[in-house]
Amino acid sequence: PITTIQGLCKISKFDESATGKSLYIQKIYEIMTGMDKTYKDVGKVLTLDSYTIKKDIFSPQVVVQSVIEELKIDTEQVQITMDIDSNLTMVSDIYLYKNILLKCIENSIHFRDLQKDQKEISIKIYRMDGHFVTEISDNGIGIAPDMLSKVFEIYFRGSERSKGQGLGLHIVQRCVTLLEGNIEVHSEVSNYTTCVIRLPYMF
Known about the structure:
41% of the residues lie in helices and 23% in strands. It has 5 helices and 7 strands, in the order ααβαββαββαββ. The strands form 2 sheets. It has a 5-stranded mixed β-sheet with strand order 2-4-5-7-6, with helices on one face. The chain has a two-stranded antiparallel ribbon with strand order 1-3. It is globular, with a radius of gyration of 19 Å.
C-alpha cells in the first residue's frame, strides 16, 4: 500500500487538473483508511491473546446503537431492523460483545448486494435456554458452500470484494470463544447470510 501511495503521488504531479488531483487524493485516502483498519484489527488480535474477561451489565440495544453510529451507516442505502427487548439486560464482557457486533455488521454492509434495490440488515437479540442469542442477518451476496467452513480462518478472504486482511470473522470467533459461547454462519449465495451467536449468562 505504501508503494501504491508513493506512485499515486508521483503521477499526480503530472496532472494539473483539479479533478485529477481530487481523484488521486480520494484514492490515497481510501488506501490509508484500509491500512488504518488493518492496523487496528491486528491490534485487536494481539490484545485478545492476553485479554482478561470482565463481567459487565449493559443494554444490548444501546451497544447496537453505538456500533451503528460508529460505522456511520447510511440508513438510506441500508435498511436496518432491530428486534431487541428494550428491557433486556446482558451480563457479559461489553468490549468483546461490541467487537462481535461491530465485525458482523461491518461484514453485512461490505458484502451487501449492489444489484438489489433494498439492502437489508436484521438484528435480533433475545434470551433462550440459558444463553443470550444474537442473530445478524442480511440479504447480501452470500457465501459459497465450499467457503463456509473457512470463514473463521485468520487471513481468509472469500471474495474479490474483500478489501481487508481476512481478520474480521476471525476476531468474532476469538471473542465468542473467550466468552465460552458458539457461533454459526448460515448462508445462500445471492440470497442471505445469518450469523447466530450464543453466549452464556455470566453471573
